[in-house]
Structures are given as structure tokens and as C-alpha cells.
Design goal:
By secondary structure, the protein is mostly beta strands. The protein has one helix spanning about 35-40, and strands at about 5-10, 15-20, 30, 45-50, 60-65, 70-75, 80-85, 90-95, 100, 110, 125, 130, 135, 160, 170-175. The structure holds zinc ion (2 copies). One zinc ion binds near residues 32, 37 and 111.
């Protein structure tokens, strides 16, 4: 297992390292399914773990006020999300997908309730031989799978798509008979 943690963004212009005590590794990330993490990252869940030191020097990164208490930090060139800093709890989380060195063992799923139906925790039930627990919110009550209901599609159903700040917010409607007549190659 590595003893150094290193983040590397997609374009490689930002990199942050730390050498935590061996007892701090492996990191124990969870998958956060909260609405903010899903819409703020575009992923079905956000895998992150506490950075084993205080917020490092993030002057090369761009800050975004994710919520009243949380700032996120990302590469100003390629947009890779690196840190998620909870100022109130004084805990900085690192995005596991941004780590290029380090060791980690996935711990559990949190805030599963926000997905309403369990989201991708229904499929990602274990990593290796370890079963991942699912929590309704954060380490409080276990999420109980109610079973996904058979979904009856209705003609007027729309799929809403929006980013965290809702600067991008649109709806995808159902295809109609007219949609099939399009001559663009995207729909053929
Ligand atoms: Zn970058
Ligand atoms: Zn979250």
C-alpha cells in the first residue's frame, strides 16, 4: 500500500500531495448519494474520503461555494473536482477519482434516501468480499430497500436535467411520431 496521497487532475496542471501517518491509510471513502453531490458532480454517487490533514494549499484551484458550509475546489483548466471542504465540521474530503496515488477501501453508501429508490447502491452492493452498508442519511439509520416498482411510462412524462445551481435546467420529453421523421443523423 502506498504511503503518499497524490491528486492529479485530468489535464495534469494541478497536483497536491501529502504524506500522512501510516495509520491514516487506507482512506475509507463512502459513496454520497445526496442530491447536491449527484447534481454537483454529474455522477450517480460521489466517492470521497476525509483528507488526513487540514485543507492543503489550494491556491492553484478554483473555489465554488457549493452550499453555505461547503466549498468545493476544482482545476480551473479542466474542471476536475478535487476537494470538498466542510467549513463547519472542519473536514476536507478528497474526490477519490482524482487520486493518482494512495490506498483506499470503500466503506459504505450515505444519504441513499435522496435517490428515493436506492439509486446505484442497488447495484453496487459490495467491493471484493466486503458488503457496503447503506445509510438513510449519514451513519444513522440503515436504508431499507423497498424494491424498485415497475414503472409505467406515461405519455406526458418528462425527464428533468439540471446542474447544482440550476444555471442549466431543461427537460427531455418523450419521442413523438414527428421525432422519427427527422433527417438529422443524430436521430437515425
Ligand atoms: Zn486540470
Ligand atoms: Zn453528498
Amino acid at each position: 500500500m502506498g504511503t503518499t496521497l497524490k491528486t492529479t487532475c485530468l489535464c495534469g496542471t494541478t497536483s497536491i500531495t501529502c504524506a500522512p501517518p501510516a495509520s491514516a491509510l487506507p482512506l475509507l471513502p463512502n459513496f454520497c448519494h445526496c442530491t447536491s453531490c449527484r447534481h454537483g458532480t454529474g455522477g450517480l454517487a460521489f466517492p470521497a474520503a476525509p483528507w488526513p490533514e487540514a485543507l492543503p494549499d489550494v491556491s492553484a484551484l478554483t473555489k465554488y461555494a457549493f452550499s453555505v458550509n461547503v466549498d468545493t475546489y476544482f482545476c480551473p483548466t479542466c474542471g476536475t473536482l478535487i476537494f470538498f471542504n466542510d467549513k463547519k465540521k472542519e473536514i476536507c474530503h478528497v474526490a477519490i477519482g482524482a487520486l493518482s496515488e494512495g490506498s483506499w477501501e470503500f466503506k459504505d453508501h450515505i444519504c441513499v434516501e435522496d435517490t428515493k429508490d436506492g439509486g446505484c447502491s442497488n447495484w453496487l452492493t459490495s467491493v471484493g468480499s466486503k458488503t457496503l452498508k447503506r445509510w438513510r442519511k449519514i451513519d444513522d439509520v440503515e436504508w431499507v430497500d423497498k424494491g424498485q416498482k415497475e414503472y409505467a411510462r406515461k405519455e406526458k412524462d418528462e425527464l428533468r436535467v439540471h446542474c447544482l445551481c440550476k444555471g442549466v435546467d431543461f427537460r427531455i420529453t418523450q419521442p413523438t411520431a414527428e421525432s422519427g421523421k427527422s433527417s438529422t443523423h443524430y436521430l437515425q
